[in-house]
Amino acid sequence: MVRYRLTQAADQDFERIFEFGIDQFGLAQALEYQNGMKHRFDQLAQQPNLYQAVDHIRQGYRRSVYRAHSIYYRIDQELVLIVRILGRENPETSLPDQSDT
Fold this sequence. Notes:
The protein has about 100 residues and is of the alpha+beta class. The chain has one domain: RelE-like (YaeB-like fold, 2-Layer Sandwich), CATH 3.30.2310. It has three helices and four strands; from the N terminus they run E-H-H-E-E-E-H. It has helices at about 10-25, 25-45, 90-95; strands at about 5, 60-65, 70-75, 80-85. It has a four-stranded mixed β-sheet. The two termini are about 20 Å apart.
C-alpha cells in the first residue's frame, strides 16, 4: 500500500491555507476545506497515477487540482511525496528540482 508524506514546504503551505481560511471564511469552512484536502491526499496515495504529469513544469512531478489549489507531488516507489500546495504562486519558481526534496 502506498502512503503519502508532505515536505516541510507543503506542510507550511497546508497550515497557511488553513489560517487564511479561518481569517476569510471562518473556522467551520476552513475545517471543511482542510478535511477535503486531506481526503485528496488519501486519494493520491491510493491512486497516484490518476492525475496528470506536469513534466513541462518540473520533470517527475504530477498535479492534482483541489478547488483553488494545486497539489504538486512525486511518486517515489511506495511513497507519494507532496512537495507543494500552491494557489496563485508560479509553480516554475516555487517547485524545487527532484534532487532538492
